[in-house]
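Quick start: what a row looks like.
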Amino acid sequence: MTGSKGTWKEFLKEEGVSEKRADPALHSWQVLAAFVATLHDTKAVRRFLRWEGEQQSDAEARAAALKNRVSHVVSMRTGRNAWDLVVLTERHPRFADCYTLPSYEKCWRRLQRRYDCVDRKGGGSVAPVLYALDCEMCETTDDTRALARLCVVNQLGDIVLEMLVKPMKRIVDYRTSITGLSAKDFEGLELRRADAQRAVAALLAAPGAVLVGHALHHDLHALRLDFQPVIDTSLLYTYSGLANCTPALADLCRAVLGRELRPPHAAHDCGADAATAMELVRHLLEGGFMVVDAPKTQVPWDELRRLSVHGIKPGTSEAHLRGMLPAGAPALEDLCYTGGRLGALQFAHPGDADAAFAMLQGDQGIDSAGRAQKTMHLADGSFVKVRKNAAHAGQAFGRDAKPNRAFRKRKAADAAGAAVEAGVG
């Protein structure tokens, strides 16, 4: 839901509150009331309340389904089945953030949930029917990820639906290097996103339908379609030593399937991407591994001399970003910032970037790829993250930070206490 100060997370950032505390239960009634006061569209509020009720009903139905689930085994060799992969996807810590889609907003379509895996009419178990979806997006005057093309494949990887979609607003960036699309592709095209919604919804109406994809929530958001159950390969596979890092589809294709997803510098093919996600699911159904080594990728020199800045508050001035650097820091060659949420501090050499990072006065941690980053508070009261573009020795990936000794002792004490309580019970 969007008010005069944006969405809930945008409102929190505007008020100078950490958006990581997104759960409303963590905030005072005064903060909640202040957000509600920004909402002026009563129809939108009613849509949200109806959606919230459906979310609650779905949560109860999901819990009951998991308790009494009828398992349809797909792989007799391993006993692992598609419903198990649905459950593993839903148990991922990021699932709620990714798949609590804002289908209360206009132009969204929310499809009925099916969690029981049982045909209510026939009373028998329903075999999962897997479809994999992938979308390509362009940028329009009002949407940086507007749907432009989609493809759906079946369990065998065969294309069952392929559509080119004309956005409602004017396209300002076809992202040709990624999508392979240009203005010529849209000449005379009349199909819109609503047509794509109906076509995909018709496929998913089949009993036992499960939607597969890699970071599938991005595709559903572009399609404005809210559907579950899903199997998301980006939540099932992980890099060794990087528990919170999302593996790229191309890296998984290389590490798991032993082939390249596409030739170097080639545009994306949503049919091939969807088929690859389905192939990765079949690998898991046959008992395949879920943990892969992160690729040994060397970061280019031009990126090593930059420090990335993200989480920039809209309207932040260049002066405030430059002001992060203390006196005596290496000279800043360029500030790459156009007013969005991302930017970069560029120096003459990688060594200068490392020295400048070391001098930044902020709390240090690492990001999901194992790269050092610091939280910096700006003069306007907002905060940003500044990180290096490489981990150790210029590698694109590092490792998660090891817990310190105090953390390990506390964790061991908690485990011992839990064991004692279990024994007493």
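That is the whole record. Residues 20 and 299 are 29 Å apart (CA to CA). The chain has two domains: 76-292, 301-394.
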